[in-house]
Amino acid sequence: MDNLExxxxxxxFLREKxxxxxxxxxxxxxxxxxxxxxxxxxxxxLRLLFAGNDEFMDASHDYLPPSTCAFAQSCIGLFSLxxxxxxxxxxxxxxxxxxxxxxxxxxxxxxxxxxxIPRLNFYIPYTNNENSIKYFKLExxxxxxxxxEINGKEIKDENLKESIKKYNSFKxxxxxxxxxxxxxxxxxxxxxxxxxxxxxxxxxxxSFFEQRSDNEIQTSFNSxxxxxxxxxxxxxxxxxxxxxxxxxxITFFDSWIGNNYYxxxxxxxxxxxxxxxxxxxxxxxxxxxxxxHSVPNFLENKIxxxxxIYQDHLKKTGRKLGxxxxxxxxxxxxxxxxxxxxxxxxEKGIQVLNLERDYSRAIRGQLSTRIEAFLxxx
Length: 378
Known about the structure:
- This protein is of the alpha/beta class.
- The protein has two domains: 3-156, Rossmann fold (3-Layer(aba) Sandwich); 164-377, Rossmann fold (3-Layer(aba) Sandwich), CATH 3.40.50.11900.
- The chain contains 17 helices and eight strands.
- It has helices at 3-19, 35-40, 54-59, 70-81, 102-114, 130-151, 157-178, 184-197, 202-211, 239-245, 259-262, 268-273, 277-286, 298-317, 332-335, 338-347, 364-377, and strands spanning 23-28, 43-48, 94-98, 119-122, 224-230, 248-254, 322-328, 352-357.
- The chain has a four-stranded parallel β-sheet with strand order 2-1-3-4. Strands 6-5-7-8 form a four-stranded parallel β-sheet, sandwiched between helices.
- Strand 3 (94-98), helix 5 and strand 4 form a beta-alpha-beta unit.
- The longest helix has 22 residues, at 130-151.
- It starts with a helix and ends with a helix.
């Protein structure tokens, strides 16, 4: 399925949900937004997973300077231009203003204010300690209150618990899918669609498992195997094509569209033992040790995680993984620690490419050259 077909089908899906009386909540994608709470309240969550061209970035410069994160620029430009294939943006009823990073909160506020979309606030601690855990729960309860005021009815604990279980099962299936031996481009398209649709995509995902087996090899034995960490590859971003054209294959996606999303699975014993569903969401936030809000230990946790993935892959296949640390230009969260991450991993014999870029077509040749040179080193 190409992106035009995906976006057309997604527009139809959202229109159907609106006709059913559902409200749609849009937000800039990151790993601490409680989709389960929206689902339990009867809303449809819409993650912004769209970026990858000059037009969106350029259209944002009336609102933010070019020195802003290229993804945040693209989100604003998307609403400013609203190309035909993105007509579903007009269906958004509310927009979450959150603070995953400075660019996130600025872009979210601009989208809400300039494009007349009522805002809901959900702020996230930048640390992971006792006080921040308490604060996170207060934010959950405040968001619950905002959603209940919109709908005029209570969000029952049992409904939230069922939504948590539903998303948990969905993420387990995505985790299983992530280990299938298929090309990175095919895997990414399915991950993008799955995270866009959420658990509504589960039947299609199960059908995919029925049609494929882990023994099917669709990638060349000559392809260099790559782990992508850092920024996600969003819908319409050609970066994965550049990797595959250069002779590489991304076998592991360590990003929001990938492991950061589906690794946040809650163990069954926790689901059974914690009665308050909000405490379950707090537990997940507390244990999100590889997210970049687990200050001050994010860098150490990330290095340990990447080293384990690398060593497990080497033991299983006998082949080394190269790591591309994808840095979306002006993304402070990833760029500030990129040199430390690279140096620490290379001390362990793991090759790392810090690939910083925006979505400009003009740098495509430069990116190709850097990727090809890195793959030659593996």
